[in-house]
Amino acid sequence: MVDVKDVLLAKLREARQAVLAALDGLDEYDVRRPMTPSGTNLLGIVKHLVGNEHVYLSEAFGRPAPDVLPWVADGSIWQDGDMWARADESREHILALYERACARGDATVAELDLDAPALVPHWSRGRQETTLAFLLVRMVEETGHHAGHADILRELIDGRTEAQLDDRGPDWWSGHLAEVQQAADRFRLPG
After folding, report:
1. Residue 121 near residue 54 (C-beta atoms within 8 A)
2. Residue closest to 5 by CA, chosen among 13, 80, 128
């Protein structure tokens, strides 16, 4: 029989790795620069996920998170302080925070049953009480969601995508892009 907890944890770890892979080989500017009008950036995604790991896979179970996060302590998280890296926050520091948060989250998952009770104080009344099962699914979704963002940001930065790492090669992708563009062009408004 398949252990659902093991499957969910494996998917979470896979999504975490996809997020981190998007930063591979990029310089400090490229991991920090805003790539969308809302300021979304690669290192900010990692920083945001640190907080998610802390809340949903540590603190919700009464387990202290491995680190005090300055953007939580000073309240700047509520002004998106978790979505970008200040100049004095190094990549190495944020990645180390993420590594420790993930290790702590993995320990929580390993030590508790899926029906273990949890409490998320910042959720609305009537929704605050939940379980490890719900929060583990949430973390798989949340991390996967941001892994997709990270993949798109990486493609915008230097054209690299996870898909392009397959064996089809650049010529196939160039032809594919031309075919997609041709189909879209049929619907371009004159103008």
Report:
1. no
2. 13
64 DSSP assignment: P
**If you search the block for the tokens 């090669």, which residue do you land on?**
169
pTM of the predicted protein model: 0.91
CA dihedral 111→114→115→119, nearest 10 degrees, is: 70
The pLDDT tens digits of the residues spanning 84-134 come to: 999 999 999 999 999 999 999 999 999 999 999 999 999 999 999 999 999
Residue with tokens 């892009």: 177
Q: Which residues of the chain have pLDDT under 50?
A: none
CATH entry, 4-166, from 3.30.70.2860, 3.40.50.1970, 1.20.120.450, 3.30.750.210: 1.20.120.450
**C-alpha angle 72/75/79, rounded to 5°?**
105
